[in-house]
Amino acid sequence: MKNKLSIIVMGAVALTFSLATSASAQLGAPGGFGWGPTLMRPSSYHSYYSSKYGLLGKVKIEGDVNYDTIIGGYDRALGNAAKRNPYGLVIGSGELSKLLLTCQPNADRQPGIGVPKVKMPFHQLVASLDIRGVNLSRSDGRFASFEDEVAYCGRILVWLDHTRRYLLLDSADPERRRVEWPYSNSVPPERVFVEGVQPTQPGGAFIVTMTLDDSNRSGFSKLFGEPAIWDRQMISIKQPGVTPKPWKDTSPVWTNAGGVAMGK
Prior knowledge:
Layout: H1 2-24, H2 47-53, E1 57-63, H3 73-76, H4 81-84, E2 89-92, E3 96-105, E4 126-135, H5 146-153, E5 155-159, E6 167-170, E7 178-182, E8 191-198, E9 204-213, E10 229-238
């Protein structure tokens, strides 16, 4: 009887650990190719319940998917279709395009009533930016080898700014395909710039994923991790890119004519 009870207990612990582990294996997590909510936190949870007791926060990637040189409401009106369908945001070879990043932890987790307490999850939270090539002919998106991925998908670089002074990611370098910002000592940037280097071949594309996870847990608390929150942008490199792009007015909004102010 005791042996049966021990087996049941051990099985329950193993199942709990398995579910907790799968909860963090969202697209963007190392080695993960999950494509949606997990059993631990289905997407059908009521938004109020999620904000109070569940979701870690809000994550969003925005790009100029309608090519009007402005990242704004007209891009958002296209929804996820322009972000997640082939060939996504098309960038010309030798061209840079800005991506706006939003990574906002859930403030409802920090109670605003009662005696103020220092109880914040920032020591557990990690934001990350991940890039990978996708094989459009397979449901799991994988290639037979890294060399095949580079041959089909081409190459993109992700920079911290448009002057290309600090390189964050390189799709052709296995050691530079993911960057992390633990909230315990840093915060993710508000924007990055994607440079098209080598054109994408038919059947391939890139996915850039922004993720917020509580993967900085340790010890027994790892069993109670929550699902990662993520957003992604599909990107393809073409030569030439989408042309012509509208001319952007760079004249200043405010200027001083140098004249004498009225009434002087």
